[in-house]
Amino acid sequence: MENLCRVFFPLEKITVVSKPCGGGTFVYTGVRDTGTGISVTAYVEKDGAKKWRSKALTYDEAADGRETQRSMSVLLFSVLTQMCGFTPKWGILTGVRPVKLYGGIMAKAGKAGAKKYFEEKLLVSKEKTELAADVFENERGILALQTPDSFSLYIGIPFCPTRCAYCSFVSSSVDKTFKLIPAYVELLCSEIKRTGEVAEKLCLKLLSVYVGGGTPTVLTAGQLGQVLDAVRSSFDMSYCMEVTVEAGRPDTVTEEKLYAMKSRGVGRISINPQTMSDDVLTAIGRRHTAAQTVSAFRLARGCGFGNINMDIIAGLPRDDEEGFKHTVDVITDMSPESITVHTLALKRAARLAQEKSGASAAGTQDAGSMIMYADSVLPEKGYIPYYLYRQSRMAGNLENTGWCKPGFENLYNVFIMEEQQTILACGCGAGTKLKDPCSEKLERIFNFKYPYEYINRFNEIIGRKDLVIDFYGKSQQELQGV
To answer: pTM value?
Structure first.
């Protein structure tokens, strides 16, 4: 219920209390035994107005806690849509992975049953239900590539030229942490080597590599080559189907860096404009221009990159519907192999969320129309939706969708979203996600968040690699019934 409230009040501090308190907006949800069944109630006070709804459940219905929660969510959703004046298109869903949920329901109820459940029980709009269904169908071939002994590798470079106003990721401005980069790269290569030894010991097959951040291309060409060489020397690359590097900031892309990546097997890069408006770029704290985005894209094409992704964001400050449409039109005319359409998410750690103007400047009311435009234009230009995820405090409670030309799906994005494969992670802030090959069990191992922690406590990070071996050892014992 707290997460559902956050959909309607994304920038408000939500406090859980045991009795009413004065001022602000008050939301009550409760379950009461009536003697003949269970009564579920949702009640909201906002700006002097009061609304509530109740529903009676039989004891048998209430025995399933998930059904009680769903019923309560539906009641609260109904009241909040009336009080707040808008109806979120994802209904009562607040989770990160709606496509994974859709797939689970479809496995039991079939395609028609899954769509019906989404629309009637979860109150998801028809357009978002169809989007989830399309993504699920487009993911199936990628997920079929996995085997119980396959995995992907993530490498984190937690440095950026500047910190974007909407960003809440743990990353450090190069201006402040430049002196840490050489030591960080050396230790990162050592962690990559140790991770390779673990993968070899467990006879795991590497399917995809993703170098993210931060902005990996803040590294010099030599440092990028050093990291990529460590990957190639530490892992058996014979099963690897893709290597991606985030070259996200166009102002960090140089010919020397592009050739350093290309010569080491990098087949896919991202050049991320976020917007093609210079005014909006200034508002979000990015130092490059729209013209530099075009130049970086053309340079990458000239260096032989035939698989380029470009990210754009709906709902940025100082942007509007016409500006976003211009961005979509310019980017689609450039014809990258994939376009990832994000919706602005204002986490509390982001500068925009901490500024008084953050909520109004973020253009949240226009975000829905912006996303609708992208969703209508991209299929016409030959793109298909192949992965999707959501975040808390997203404008309009919308979604991030990866679109690509058929055949250019990024495997890593699907693997990480659907949680059907182990992801071994190296670097500051990276999180290893271990998937039991014999069950749905997941375990996570996190590295330290900040570069100075990573450097100063590196031995602890190396020691945690043994936990990967322990996890697979336990899985093998369970498989054998030991």
So the answer is: 0.92
